[in-house]
Amino acid sequence: MLVSPIPSVNRILFPKSKNNLYWKNCVFTSRSGVSVRLIIDAYREVLKKDKINVSIPSYFCAETEAEFSDSNVNILRYPLLDDFEPDWKYIKENNQFKENDIFVFVHFFGEYHDINRARTFCDNNNCILIEDCAHVLYKYGKMAQKGDFVLFSPHKLLGLMDGAVILCNNSEKNERIYKVVQQKSYVSKKTFETVKWRLKKIVQKIIRRSRKTNYCYQEHYLETRDRTSNIAISTISYNIIKSIDEEELKKIAYRRRENLKLMNYVIKEVCPDICEIISEENESPFFAVYSLEKVENKEAVISQIKGKGIEVLFWPSLSPIVANGDQFETTRKYSKNLFMIPIHQDIKMEDIAKYAKKDKKSSNSMMVKKIGCEQEERKKWNDILAQSELSNITQDWGYAEAKSKAEGWGVDRFFICKDQNVIGVVQILRKKVLGVTVAVRINKGPVFVKEENQLENELQIVDMVRKRYYKLLPIVWDPYSTMSNSNFIKMIQNGWKVIDIYGFPSGTVDLLKAENEIRAALNSKWRNQLKMAEKSGYSIEKEEIDFEKFIQCYRKEQEDKKFEGVNERLLREINELSSQPLRFFYVKNKLGEVIAFDIFYRHEKAATYYIGWNNEEGRKACLNNLLLYHAAIELKKEGVEILDLGGIEYIHTESIAKFKDGMNPKHFRQMGEFVKI
Q1: What Rg, from alpha-carbon coordinates, does the chain have?
Q2: Rounded Cα–Cα distance for residues 182 and 256 (Å)
Q3: Contact predicate 243/15, CB 8 Å
Q4: How far apart are CA 291 and CA 302, in angstroms?
Q5: Cα torsion for 268, 274, 276, 280, to the nearest 10°?
Q6: Under a CB-based contact definition with an 8 Å cutoff, are residues 523 and 676 in contact?
Q7: In angstroms, rounded to a whole number, what is the distance separating the alpha carbons of residues 201 and 155?
Q8: What angle (nearest 5°) sits at the alpha carbon of residue 204, between those of residues 199 and 210?
Q9: pLDDT tens, 453-498?
């Protein structure tokens, strides 16, 4: 396990800066401590003030402090409470803080902390608020909104040679200071340091080794030291940062979140008395952080964790000044009890899963029966899907027929039997080249009746059909079971290799609820947009479908927005199915033009939101809200019990995901794709 991530070989050797709008209006420096130094120097210059009072939390890296501390900087340390929040009572009772010029507020380990009181304090005392997001990957939600200046440290999360970022939340008060900061920052080639860094990272790429770490069981301090960093960011780090867009940052954050969840699972297996410090809802955790406060034999537990091959770190090295004083007792407790484990994006989820205890394999007396295309078999198939927790499009009988005609897939269907009863079904697609099957694929199956729905049964059945019907062929499998730590670990322990960790996130709306309950569950903004659309006079139609018009609108949107979406040939074949699973809802304007439509795929007791479209007129009138809500009510009347919103994915389609989340669905996520030969 590497302590920190390493950029790709291409970025190490041939970094190319891009005109990336995400980094617009950023100031780049070498380190976050240097960023603070720049702000202090600019503040001193603009306000014509020699001595600057800077407040920092007592739990603060002494190395970072050394980068901005000098004889004209008076450091004021405020203590923290057990939840890492500032001790505001102490701050209020100590008059020295009223003379404060700059207040540094830290979001430790990427975890959001309530900065509102710090904002109020700075406003009341006419001082600058620096929001330290050095452990945060990017700006989101409430994060990085309140500070006059916001600090990020990409080098800590992206494994760069150096690199920090200053953002300014513009106001008249700090605009002049920010201009001085911009003038003082610059980019430097740093040729010798860059060559050394490149060599080091290439070697680490090859041997997959990083420096040995020693864990300190006591409070850890760092004696006063001189500044080590100059202001400039290196050209190589600057180019790498500028080549990374928001989508890539979101993928990195996703990997860190998933790694944190798995690592928590593994650490709890080692010792249940270890306390988790970081929330699993953290957008992009810096480390997995734990406390040994309730653990009796700390050395034995740490040895056991390290014995698995997991790196154990401590952070930060504190200033010796906090070694004494009752007000710093909580800080010393942090220093003595907290430990960190890397969970960065270069660590594979499957590697963390291997640290978990081996799961005992269980098997049920099940068998598979290959079936044909008889009407009776189809009826039984649909009956099993109706008894499942949630059926899906890809295991629908008609969908496979359409897939075969549109894209040339072969289809094999199996009943899963137990004690002479059919308890599940699985539909398998085969890809042929020159008449020879070269690969098989299972999409969101096998599907079992609700009582038998568990990953162990899926694993047993897939291995059974693989050995009996598809020997030596690669199988790509997206399991039906949803993502959980234990499910993912079982997949890895059963020999499945991950090829897509992002999975298939979605959400469902319970249509068994009364209509007034469904409406009341909508979030307020979404509900207000719905009301506005309802008052606009547009009416929803579902008869006299102009399918070709829908196709033309959808094709144009695919071309304009450059997304793949649903294959047009597949959509046509689905529309031709005798079972007709598609449900259409659309709105026309006064000229008779279609300005918005939604298409849903009905599969037994469920329906999936398949395609949504509207033009500018439809968007302004919030017809998306009108169509989705009233389509849900119409489907409910038709007997649909569950509405699957068809994907709620924030990496590539954030605006669509936010729109669907307005219905406050119950979220779930399939585990992603795996392969086995």
Answers
A1: 29
A2: 32
A3: yes
A4: 11
A5: 0
A6: no
A7: 14
A8: 120
A9: 999 999 999 999 999 999 889 999 999 999 999 999 999 999 999 9
- Where do runs of H (alpha helix) occur along 145-232? 154-158, 172-184, 191-207
Q: What's the rounded Cα separation, in Å, for the pair 229 and 188?
A: 12
Q: Where are the alpha helices (DSSP H) in 244-370?
A: 246-270, 298-307, 329-337, 349-353
Phi-psi bin for 261: left (phi > 0), alpha (psi -120 to 50), beta?
alpha
- State the amino acid at position 244 in one-letter form: I
Asked if 195 and 242 touch (Cβ cutoff 8 Å), the reply is no
Matching residue, tokens 């210059």: 45
Rounded Cα gap, residues 316 and 310, in angstroms: 19
Three-state SS letters, 134-158: CCCCCCECCECCCCCEEEECHHHHH
Compute how many other C-beta atoms are within 10 angstroms of the C-beta atom of residue 162. Answer: 25
CB 250 within 8 A of CB 31: no
User: What's the CA gap between 465 and 10, in Å, rounded?
Assistant: 42
SS3 547: helix
Tokens found for residue 137: 């990957």
Question: Which two tokens mark 50?
Answer: 């020699």
| pLDDT > 70 fraction of the chain, expressed in percent and rounded | 100
Longest CA–CA separation in the chain, Å: 89
Structure tokens, 480 = 């039906």
Q: Give the C-alpha separation, 405 to 387, whole Å.
A: 28
Beta bridge partners of 433: 436
Provide the residue type at 492 as one letter.
I
Residue 470 gets which letter from DSSP? -
For residue 29, which phi and psi values (nearest 5 degrees)?
Answer: -135, 180
Q: Determine whether 519 is exposed, middle or buried from the number of CB atoms within 10 Å of its CB (0-12, 13-18, 19+).
A: middle
CB 16 within 8 A of CB 243: yes
CA–CA separation, 470 vs 370, rounded Å? 13
Which of the 8 DSSP states describes residue 566?
Answer: S
- How far apart, in whole angstroms, are the C-alpha atoms of residue 20 and residue 249? 13
Give yes or no for a contact between 413 and 371, defined as CB atoms under 8 angstroms apart.
yes
Chain centre to alpha carbon of residue 286:
13
Compute the C-alpha angle 29/33/34, nearest 5°. 40
Give me the amino acid identity at 104: V
The count of C-alpha atoms lying within 13 angstroms of the C-alpha of 143, restricted to the half-sphere facing its C-beta, is 22
Q: What is the mean pLDDT of each run of 10 residues along the chain (677 residues)?
A: 90 88 90 96 93 96 93 95 96 93 97 96 95 96 95 96 92 86 94 95 86 80 78 95 94 96 96 95 95 94 93 92 95 95 95 90 87 94 96 96 93 95 96 86 96 95 93 93 95 94 93 97 96 92 83 88 87 92 93 93 96 93 96 96 95 93 96 92
Q: What is the pLDDT of residues 264-317, one digit of tens each?
A: 999 999 999 999 999 999 999 999 999 999 999 999 999 999 999 899 999 999
Residue 121: partners with Cβ closer than 8 Å, 6 or more residues away? 88, 91, 103, 127
- 543 Rama sector, left if φ>0, alpha if ψ -120 to 50, beta otherwise: beta
CB-count exposure of residue 259 (10 Å: 0-12, 13-18, 19+): buried
